[in-house]
Amino acid sequence: MRQSDDARSRQRELNRAYKDTEHGRIKRRAHHAARKAVLRGAGCSEADKSLMELIYKHCPAGYQVDHITPIAKGGKHHPDNLQYLPAEINNLKRARTDFDCSLHVIRWQDLVEPSTTIP
Fold first, then answer.
1. How far apart are alpha carbons 95 and 33 in whole angstroms?
2. Which H helix or E strand runs over 68?
3. Are 68 and 93 spatial neighbours (Cβ–Cβ below 8 Å)?
4. Which of 41, 51, 100, 111 has the most CB atoms within 10 Å of its CB?
């Protein structure tokens, strides 16, 4: 059975509102990073997906999830290849492997307990 135009319109509004919530932003960031990795052949396994979502969820304000070895340089979209960097440092680093950002790194392992579940 097809939805009425009103029902479709209402569902679109709900979807837009969800995308603006904190949980919606986390899911979107994780989804885009995973999709980009899959397109480059660097995707993670099903078992790692929930941990990856936790890593993105616990990213501190003003920081971004960074791939230690960039996907563009052959790195994998895997928890072992992720760290938190301040947004401005991550933007300077880009896809470089020779950039020293060790003074600014926060290890996700210091903030995320892998046994934590996502509501």
1. 14
2. none
3. no
4. 51
